[in-house]
Amino acid sequence: MNSYYSNLIEGQGTHPAYIDRALRHDFSATPDIAQRQRIALAHIDAEKELEAQATDETMTLSASFLLRAHASLYGRLSADDRRTTDGNVVEPGLLRQQDVAVGRHQPPTWCSLPKFLERADTIYARRVALDARIYTVAAVHHRMTWVHPFGDGNGRACRLQTHCALLPLSGGLWSVSRGLARQRARYYELLSNADMPRQGDLDGRGDLSERMLRAWCRFFIELCGDQARFMGDMLDLRLLRERIAALVLIRSQSTAHSDYRREAILPLHHVLAAGPVSRADFTQMSGLAERTARKLMSRLLADGLLVADNPKGEVGIGFPLDSLSILFPNLYPEAATTPPPG
Fold first, then answer.
1. Do the Cβ atoms of 81 and 40 come closer than 8 Å?
2. pLDDT per 10-residue tile (average), the chain, 342 residues
3. In angstroms, what CA-CA distances link 229 with 9, 173, 174?
């Protein structure tokens, strides 16, 4: 989800079906789609690597972690996939070596970047109380995008850093990138507003507007709350049981899913709530005759609603793409649509 929405923000959205294919190393014959698949896959792998390294909350807010995020993402891409529209090849984790303009924003000159990043570490890369964590993360997100450390990939790298910095609060159960993508215009507007110079003596003490930074932080905090509430509803076990029941009943009425039976509802909900179980236990929970239960279980495994590490191992819950529009409505609205040819 983070990969899908972060790339969507950049105007390089990839249909979830293509991301799903990329995870199975099935790439499109269409060069543009295949490139977006590779970028999505690189984001997913980089995020896994960075999450494993995000063991210290002060470290995730540091400039060095941002450089690590950029290197982890772009280091997984070929030179061609790192090439910008003006023909330059972006080097992973390397600070830009030239001055740039981003719309109306003029980031700091390239030779001053180390000093700006050092100053950001002095202010933000330190331990704070839990209730201060979220607005500190918001401020870091703006300050790092304002500095614009890299020739390209600043937004993606900053969102990877932000995701990891929020892990103590989110547990990885909700996505700030989903919220930012759903309010993309407002996201860019408030980031841009926070680039403004100070408006008078009552607007903070630095060069930039404190009032506009507060407006950005307020938006960010409200957005995080919205995403936490959304995923709270999505992961409510009672509501999930209802959605599992709806999925099974819909498929049981389809000739394409003739092996589905309503007896699958209870064991599917159990493995979702309690974790993997043995195949014998799954069969017993269904209440079906052994042969019928095994046929049902084979169908659920083939469709991805059950997953197993080996042919005889325990079975656990799976979330195949074609089930998400029912199990997690609005998680990926595009997942319910037919992907473009490719």
1. no
2. 93 89 93 95 97 91 97 97 90 95 89 96 90 93 96 96 95 95 96 87 79 95 96 94 95 85 95 95 95 94 95 94 91 79 76
3. 22, 11, 9
Cα dihedral 199, 203, 208, 214 in deg (nearest 10): -120
Domains and CATH numbers, the chain: 2-234 (1.10.3290.10), 237-336 (1.10.10)
Q: Please choose, from the candidates 177, 201, 180, 182, the residue with its C-alpha nearest in 3D space to the C-alpha of residue 191.
A: 180
What pTM, to 2 d.p., does this model score?
0.91
Per the structure block, which two tokens stand in for 222? 């409200």
Through-space distance between the first and last CA atoms of the chain, rounded to whole angstroms = 21
The full DSSP string for 170-231 is HTTSS-HHHHHHHTHHHHHHHHHHTTSBP-STTS-SSSB-HHHHHHHHHHHHHHHHHHHHHH
Q: Which residues contact 250 (CB under 8 A, 6 or more apart)?
A: 326
The helix or strand, by DSSP H or E, that contains position 282, with its residue range, turns out to be helix 279-286
Residue 45: which H helix or E strand, with range?
Answer: helix 31-53
HSE of 101, CA atoms in CB hemisphere, 13 A: 2
